[in-house]
Structures are given as structure tokens and as C-alpha cells.
Amino acid sequence: MLRFRSALGALPAAALATLLATSVPVNAQDPETAFPAFPTTESSVNTPDGEAAVFDASLGTVGAHDQHCNCQECQLAAMQSSSANWDLCPSDAPIDWSKYPATIHPMPRPGIFPIPPNQGPAYFSLWDQLTGEVRQTPPKSGYAPFAINAWPFFDSDWRYVDAISPEERDAVEQLKRLKLGDSLLFSTGGEFWIKHHNEHNARLTQKDNNFNLTHVRLYGDLSYKDLFRVYGEYIWADSSDQSLTPLPPDVDRGDLLDLFVDVKTFELDGKPVYVRVGRQELLYGSQRLITPLPWANKRHSFQGVKVFRHGEKWDLDAFWTQYVPPKSGKFDLPDDKQQFAGAWATYKPKKGETVDFYYLMYKNDKSSVQSGIVRSPFETHTFGTRWAGDQDGWLWDFESALQCGNQGGSNLFAGMATAGLGRNWKEASLTPTFWMYYDYASGDSNPGSGSSHTFNQQFPFGHYYMGWMDLVGRQNIHDVNAHLYLYPTPWMTVWLQYHHFWLAESRDALYNAGGAAYRRDATGAAGNNVGDEIDLVLNFHVTKYSDILVSYNKLFGGSFLERTAGPTTASDAESLYLIFQQRF
User: Fold this and answer.
1) What is the rounded distance in angstroms from the CA atom of residue 384 to the CA atom of residue 399?
2) N or C end of the chain: smaller count of CB under 10 Å?
3) Span 278-282, mean pLDDT?
């Protein structure tokens, strides 16, 4: 049985009340917007003829507005055309503030995406319900209405704030889009969270591990017109009461998560091309291979250069970086033995549909042997594509990649594939979304034979895709999984998951969410049945900027885990997670 200790119990009641109070909107307006699911966001763009339009990152579409629309873009346009606007710009010609900062990028739609309710009248937060605030549409925000903000803060879209007078903005909005003179724009903000882990047979070590993770993130964002941008983000991440050695992302006491400069260089087909130099988070496509790892106490950082151009139909990126591993007692520095580079193109053919094409190069010159398998040095070259979208309630998500290169002196040829079909019943009670998926990543039938076929998962968001226990990674694995989203109320998300795992090759290892080989039978006699996992995730959107997430997870170990367990090692495991997060 799990012994649950509430992480919220460590928060003084007065402090919690203060946090909730800062999240309550000052104004009583009901602005129109699409209610974003956990992994999506919304941004605004201009149509070719200059007409204001909404760009929904999850759908990749532009929708025109009529003369009666009061959405953020139309309010912004009205504000800009009015001589009685409230910005501090002394210029006679109004500045198009909607272009600032010009380098925010709406988050691409991940896999397993739900279609949440986005219309009222309804309560869109617990605070709305407690205060009787019925809204016609969800309140706008640059943050996700979920405890895990997947996209980086530098891609949060606060442009809607320009259409709200200063006295009507809430406490958080007053920190955003501050005009400094006639050319500069500054925003600040951040996040606090406390995450409680209650793990039985943690990491399959036969130990219980009950502990807390906390972090504080603070950022500053300064733009000069659409020509220049400086962004920096500080993080303090810590851990307490762990029975096992903390994982590297658990502890990083005082460091830079991001610090970069964006410079506009030239235009390509009417769209600006920017160069980003410095420390940055990377997020592309489904996040199966590249993610900031938003579940971690300290997110992934990379240091290098990125060139990008984003448009209505095509987004084009190329980057070369070095991974920045977290150091608990030292300032984080880029690892010159881990180089990560790539090129990514996204095509948005029509509403609700995106197609990705990508190439990734990952080189690790360190030496590592795990479970008798030489894991590094390696150099991988990954070529992949993805097609995802929705239409008339039907959802789809397909992705595949081939990988070549070398690993530990052996030639590497490997691959992965994902196929998912889903259905959303938008008008039904609870707004259900159901998905069925099959995930595959190749393994090696004879490790150490002179050739390697184990797929390298790069920098994945494994926690989101391969079970919340973090015991299975996208390497040497088959996973048949099903997902169901329900919304008993717009401020409550219920996410149910089921996974059945088995090894692709029985003589290869079982790899965890971080890609480490930690269970293996070199003879293959243990078979390949890893087991079954169930996950229940509940997210409560407490206020506009705060959430509580509860997750219960159970792994029923199969014959492979039973036969590779030691005499005192169990094959079953379970965990309970609790997160409280407050953004500002």
C-alpha cells in the first residue's frame, strides 16, 4: 500500500491563499479564445491581406473574423486604430505591437491530443465555480490550463494583453508587454511548483521512495521592435527526502535554463529569417524525439545556434547545439562531447493537419557500458516524418524514423514507428476523446555482434508517451496503448491510459525513460513480456494561473521482469504523484 504524504501540506495556508488571490482576474470580461488543452497554445498572425485572424497552433489554421468579433486580435486592431489608446508610444504613427516579440512560435500539436471543451456558459476554473463567475469562453492566458506547461515560456503568447487597458489587467498580465519608449517591449514572469513522489518499488529497486521536488523559474524578455530579442531564465531546482540517489534533473540549485539573443537577418519569401544564439530549450513536432522535458524538475537546455523562418504554410528550422547537463553544485556548462544538430520542416496544408520532415544528428563521445551493452560512444543520423491532424471528429497521428550511424564501434541501423487513431465526441457529455496507439522501436537480436539495431530515442518526452512510471523508453520495445480523456467540468481533466509492453528483441535490454539499459537477460530465456501499466491522471485548473495534478500509476510486471528480478526484487511497481504549480 502506498503511504501518501501531501506535498501541499508543506505550504502554509496564508501563502496558498496569497497565491490563489494573485491568480484571480481583476476584470470581469469574458474574452473569446479557444480553451487550450495541456499541450497546445494559441497565437495570432496576420492574413496576407492584413485582416486580423486567429492561428490555432493545434490545428495549424487561420480563421477570418467578422465585424462583430471581440476576440483578442480584433480588440487589438481596434486599439491600434484608435487615437485614444493607452500605450506609452509618443510616435504619431501607431506601432503594430502585435509583431512583438516576433520570434514566439506556437507549440506544435503533440500526439495523444484531446479536444477539450471551449465554449460556455461554464465555469472554466475552480475559482470561477466558487465565486459563481460564469463565462461564455475560457479566459485568455499565455500559459496552459494544466499543471505541466509543455512549451517554453519564451513561446508564451501574451499579445492579447495589448487590447486590455492597464487598470483592467490582472496581476499577472500587468507583468507582460510593458512598453519602454517607442521601440522596446519587456515581459517578466515565472513559475513555482512542488511535486510529491510516492513510489513503491521505485525504479524496480525494491525500495520505497517518498520525496518532494521543488523549483522556481524566473524570466525576463526584452525585444527591440522585430529586430532584436534578449531572453533569460533562471531556475532553482531542489529535492528533499529521497531514499535513492536523485536523478540529474532533480537538483540544480541556481542556474540558467535559457539565455539567448534573437537577431533578424533577412527575409525569405516575405517572411523574416532569425538567428538565435545562446542557451535555449528545443521543442519540435510530437516531442517523441526532441522535448524540453516539462515533467522534469529541471528542463533540458542546449547551447548553440538556431536559424528559423516561420510562415503560414511552412516552418523551417536548422540548429547546431551542445547538450547542457544539469550540475547540482556547479554552474551548468555545455558538454562538448555531446553534439546535437538537425533540420526541421513543418508543412500546414489545411485546417487541422500538419506534416513534419526532419533530420537529426546526435554525437556522444563519452564511453558507457550498461547491462553488458556498449551504449556509447555513438553517432546517430535520424531521418523521419510525421502526419497528424483531425477532421469531423476523427483524429490521427502517424510518425516513423530511420536511423543510421555507429554505436560503440558497430554500424547502426535502426528505426521507430507510431500509428494512432482517435475519435472525439465534441457534443457528447464529458467531451470524450479516445485514442488507440501502437508504438515500436527496434532492438538488437545479438548485442555486441558487430552491428547494432537498437533505436536511439534522442531527447524524448517519454513520460508523456510510454507510461507515467518512467520504466519504459522508446528503445527495443512494442507498446499497444489506449487513452481516454474526459471533462466532467471544463476545469477538470481526466486522462486514463493503458499500456501493454513487450521487448522487440528478447536478448536486448529493457530501457527506461532516460534511455538507460537496466534489465536484461543476455540469453533471451526470460522472454519479452515486460508487463502492463495503467495510469490515471487528474488535473484541476484551480485559477487562471494555478493547477493541481494527481496521478496514480501501476505496473503489473510480466514474465520478463519476473525472471530477471533478483531473489528480493519485485516485478510490480506503483506510484502516486501530486503537483501544485503557480505561474505568474
Assistant:
1) 7
2) N
3) 98
Q: From CA 335, how far away is CA 311, in angstroms rounded?
A: 33
Least confident of 22-36, 217-231, 498-512: 22-36
Per residue in 132-163, pLDDT tens?
999 999 999 999 999 999 999 999 999 999 99
Pick the CATH number of 8-25+38-583 from 3.40.50.11030, 3.10.310.50, 3.40.50.300, 2.40.160.100: 2.40.160.100
Residues 6+ apart with CB under 8 A from 238: 213, 214, 215, 251, 253, 297
Nearest-angstrom CA–CA distance, 283 and 156: 13
User: Average pLDDT of the chain?
Assistant: 86
Residues 288, 401: Cα–Cα separation, whole Å:
11
What distance in Å separates the CA atoms of residue 217 and residue 210, rounded to the nearest whole number?
A: 24
For residues 217 and 234, the answer to whether their CB atoms sit within 8 Å is yes
The domain segmentation of the chain, as residue ranges, is 8-25+38-583
For 578, the 3-state DSSP assignment is strand
Instruction: List 395's β-bridge partners, or say none.
Output: 390, 422
Q: Decide if 396 contacts 421 (C-beta within 8 A).
A: yes
Amino acid at 84: A
What average pLDDT score do residues 545-562 get?
97
38-75 burial, b if ≥16 CB within 10 A, otherwise e? bbbbbbbbbeeeeebbbbbbbbbbbeebeeeeebbbbb
pLDDT single digits (tens) 94-103 = 678 887 898 9
Q: What is the dihedral of CA 239, 241, 244, 249, to 10 degrees?
A: -10
Measured distance CA(242)–CA(195) in Å, rounded:
13
- Could you tell me the three cell numbers for 137? 469562453
Q: Does an H or E element contain 231, and which?
A: strand 228-240
pLDDT per residue over 232-248, tens digit each? 999 999 999 999 999 99
> Between the CA of residue 566 and those of 204, 507, 524, 542, 558, what are the distances in Å?
10, 18, 16, 44, 14
Residues 6+ apart with CB under 8 A from 566: none
**Helix, strand, or coil here: 158?**
coil
Give φ, ψ of 215 to 5 degrees: -150, 155
